[in-house]
């Protein structure tokens, strides 16, 4: 029984190291999304930090600020969704069958 417990602990430690490595790799990744046919581009890292925003001059219209705001929101939400999807895909391999609430990685 004691040997079985030691093996299980070793397996858990191995899995924890793999999870930490996968999470570090995710944090180093770059994600990019655009809207308005590429007029707005938002870049973020795997930590969900926005690292760059590019706005094409032709989309800047002082009479239509609402459109610019909508394009920025769309690109930002898209890039965040990409990060969420990649995180779930990457970290999900470690939590399959564990019935953990969403976001608990």
From TrEMBL:
The Swiss-Prot or TrEMBL record annotates one GO molecular function as: DNA binding
Query: Is DNA-binding a UniProt keyword of this protein?
Result: yes
Per the record, where are the segments of Low complexity compositional bias?
1-14
Localization annotation: Cytoplasm, Nucleoid
- Residues annotated as region Disordered? 1-23
Q: Which UniProt keywords apply?
A: Cytoplasm, DNA-binding
GO cellular component term of the entry, any = bacterial nucleoid
Q: What Gene3D superfamilies does its record include? A: Nucleoid-associated protein YbaB-like domain
Q: How does it assemble?
A: Homodimer.
Instruction: List the HAMAP family hit by this protein, alphabetically.
Output: DNA_YbaB_EbfC
Q: What does this protein do?
A: Binds to DNA and alters its conformation. May be involved in regulation of gene expression, nucleoid organization and DNA protection.
- Official protein name in the record: Nucleoid-associated protein SAMN04488072_11531
């Amino acid at each position: 029984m004691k040997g079985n417990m030691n093996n299980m602990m070793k397996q858990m430690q191995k899995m924890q190291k793999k999870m930490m490595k996968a999470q570090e790799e995710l944090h180093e990744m770059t994600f990019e999304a655009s809207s308005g046919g590429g007029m707005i581009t938002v870049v973020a890292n795997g930590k969900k930090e926005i690292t760059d925003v590019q706005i094409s001059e032709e989309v800047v219209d002082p009479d239509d600020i609402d459109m610019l705001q909508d394009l920025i929101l769309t690109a930002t939400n898209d890039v965040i969704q990409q990060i969420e999807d990649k995180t779930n895909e990457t970290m999900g391999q470690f939590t399959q069958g564990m019935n953990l609430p969403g976001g608990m990685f």
